[in-house]
Amino acid sequence: MLGGIREQPAETPQPAPRRIFQERQRITGLPLYFQGYLSVRHSGCQEFRVYWTELRGTMLFFYDDKKAPTYSQKLDISALTSATNVYPDENGSALFILMLSNGELELKANDCECGKEWKGFILTVTKLSVPPDASLLPGQLTRMHEVLEKEKKRRIALNDCSSTSLNRKSPPSSTLTTMPVCFYAVSRQEAIEMLEKNPSCGNLILRPGSDSKNYAITIRHELVAPHLKHYKVRSKGASYVIELERQVILPSLQDVVSYFVTQTQGNLKPFVIQTRTAEDPVF
């Protein structure tokens, strides 16, 4: 839960050092659109907590420190329904609220100009339109239009990736209608690239095996550093065998996927490309 307020010195957002930027880019796999300090309070919490915050794609990543290479929290805002006006509180900070399908998130910036800029970028990437706000400066609007074009290209690339993956070939000995949603008819290397480029979509892909008769699972863990692993899934009559130290036999491919999810207590999530995801805020 977000809780406990920490004071951070007010400062103009500056780019992180190149090494930190590269590490964050590698971990998140998403383009950076805007960044700076934000105080954050989720529904049900009584206190704000200050984070160095990055807007990447339609995700907010929260860092405990400006120089921390790894985020401590993240939030998918693709399901944003609306945002309130930015208004000053009793301390002069600028407060606004994001209304999401699964709750509300209160955000507080250093001042009204910064708050309106944050709100503008958030609306730009979630609504795919630069908000008509007369208080935004020409330079701010120009950057929002640049971000809009980048986000549109990113969405197109995601859709193309999904369409290409599904249409390349039929799954072995089955049909698409009976396959788990995380099945993609892709090669091992293509599965790796999909997981690396789209971490917010999930981290487990079911794909055809190299012999085109069986299957394979490709996963991407984020422990100290991202870690990729591959598991063979062999067809055996009407069942499927996961080739582990001790073989696991399951009745369906959906059960195979569910096995990996439950055995990792939900740390593995089926990879699903879509405009909106159902991921809840990680608070």
The helical percent reads 25-40%
Total DSSP E strands: 13
The CATH superfamily label of the largest domain reads Pleckstrin-homology domain (PH domain)/Phosphotyrosine-binding domain (PTB)
Number of domains: 2
The CATH architecture designation of the largest domain is Roll
Instruction: Output the CATH class name of the largest domain.
Output: Mainly Beta
Tell me the major beta sheet: 8 strands, antiparallel
Per DSSP, the total helix count is 5
Beta content comes to: 25-35%
Shape: elongated
Low-pLDDT regions = 1-13, 168-177, 275-283
What does this structure look like?
The protein has 283 residues and is α+β, with helices and mostly antiparallel strands. The chain folds into two domains: 18-153, Roll (PH-domain like); 169-263, SHC Adaptor Protein (2-Layer Sandwich), CATH 3.30.505. 28% of the residues lie in helices and 28% in strands. The protein has five helices and 13 strands. The chain has helices at 18-28, 112-127, 138-167, 188-197, 253-263; strands at 32-42, 49-56, 59-63, 73-76, 80-83, 87-88, 94-100, 103-109, 204-208, 215-222, 226-236, 239-242, 248-250. Helix 2 packs parallel to helix 3 (138-167). The longest helix has 30 residues, at 138-167. The N and C termini lie close together (5 Å). Mean pLDDT is 81; it is low at 1-13, 168-177 and 275-283.
